[in-house]
Design a protein that fits this description.
- Helix content is 34%, strand content 26%.
- By secondary structure, it is α+β, with helices and mostly antiparallel strands.
- The protein has a single domain, classed as Gcn5-related N-acetyltransferase (GNAT) (Aminopeptidase, 3-Layer(aba) Sandwich), CATH 3.40.630.
- It is globular, with a radius of gyration of 16 Å.
- The two termini are 14 Å apart.
């Protein structure tokens, strides 16, 4: 991974991509806090890690600043890597989010991968995950400079398996271990 490219990429390059079904990947504006909270509350009971780095009651402006810092590698703990975290908008609604890790550490190479994505429950089963991942792969390639992207998912997650395979994912292996509640599939995708 080319961390320098990710750090030097402009905010606008990393925060706005519009393609396909009018889905836009970007950070919310400060005046979109209510939509952000709606997506958070709708998704977090099922997916507690929907929002990375968010602490309940945190000022929205502070959360947006933290996301920019994490993208730049500022205040990143030793077990984490810089990551671009974006929300998927369809019109004015947040329909999901994506996190693109700029590099892999040992744990991410085993089970986390470069990209994680979640679709808000009310927007599932409409093909949005496929489009969010497709756009995320383009961001991984340029401006982040990641040529091969690792994605992982639970072996029984049919929706994620289909999403990854529709985006060109090639299964490398399925891993098991005492630290895993379920077997994990590991896929590679050329981001270009």
């Amino acid at each position: 991974m080319h961390a320098d490219r990710a750090s030097n990429a402009s905010v606008s390059e990393l925060e706005t991509v519009t393609m396909g079904d009018q889905i836009t990947l970007r950070l919310p504006r400060e005046d979109e806090e209510s939509e952000f909270l709606h997506a958070h509350r709708a998704t977090s009971p099922e997916v507690p890690y929907f929002l990375h780095y968010y602490v309940e009651g945190m000022a929205f402006r502070d959360y947006l600043r933290v996301l920019v810092e994490r993208r730049l590698g500022v205040n990143v703990s030793p077990n984490f890597v810089p990551a671009t975290f974006l929300f998927a908008f369809l019109g004015s609604r947040i329909i999901g989010r994506i996190s693109i890790r700029h590099s892999l550490n040992e744990q991410l190479e085993r089970v986390g991968g470069h990209i994680g994505y979640v679709v808000v429950p009310e927007f599932r089963r409409r093909g949005h995950a496929t489009e969010i991942l497709r756009q995320g792969l383009r961001i991984a390639r340029a401006p982040l400079g990641i040529e091969r992207v690792l994605l992982t998912c639970d072996d029984d997650n049919i929706g994620s398996i289909r999403t990854i395979e529709k985006n060109g994912g090639t299964l490398e292996n399925i891993i098991v271990g005492a630290d895993l509640s379920k077997p994990k599939r590991r896929y590679w995708i050329a981001s270009g």
